[in-house]
């Protein structure tokens, strides 16, 4: 039997699409889905609404940023 590895966010693709693409998708989705700090209230409640649009759940601030993270990290 083969060695079992961690599936991660790109595990839904199985063995399809190649390792490089699955690794890139995994890295992007990890950054995109984590909690980010709000520039207005400094609390970690910012979520992605759409591509480049971010909203704080706590204070309601809506602002533009990069596609996968609110600011350059």
Structure description:
By secondary structure, the protein is of the alpha+beta class. It has a domain of 39 residues: N-terminal domain of TfIIb, CATH 2.20.25. The chain contains one helix and three strands; from the N terminus they run αβββ. Strands 1-2-3 form a three-stranded antiparallel β-sheet, with no helix packed on it. A hairpin with a 2-residue loop joins β1 and β2. The N and C termini lie far apart (41 Å). The mean pLDDT is 88.
Topology:
Elements: H1 19-33, E1 46-50, E2 53-56, E3 62-64
Antiparallel strand pairs: 1-2, 2-3
Oligomer status: single chain
How would you classify the helix and strand content by structural class?
alpha+beta
Series of secondary-structure elements, N-terminal to C-terminal: HEEE
The proportion of residues in beta strands is 15-25%
Secondary structure tally, helices: 1
CATH architecture of one domain: Single Sheet
Unreliable spans are none
Mean pLDDT: 88
CATH class division of one domain: Mainly Beta
Query: What is the 3D shape?
Result: elongated
């Amino acid at each position: 039997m083969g060695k079992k590895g961690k599936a991660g966010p790109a595990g839904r693709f199985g063995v399809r699409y190649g390792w490089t693409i699955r690794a890139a998708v995994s890295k992007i989705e990890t950054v995109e889905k984590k909690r980010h700090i709000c520039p207005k209230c400094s609390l970690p409640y910012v979520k992605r609404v759409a591509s480049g649009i971010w909203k704080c759940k706590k204070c309601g601030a809506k602002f533009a940023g990069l596609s996968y993270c609110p600011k350059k990290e």
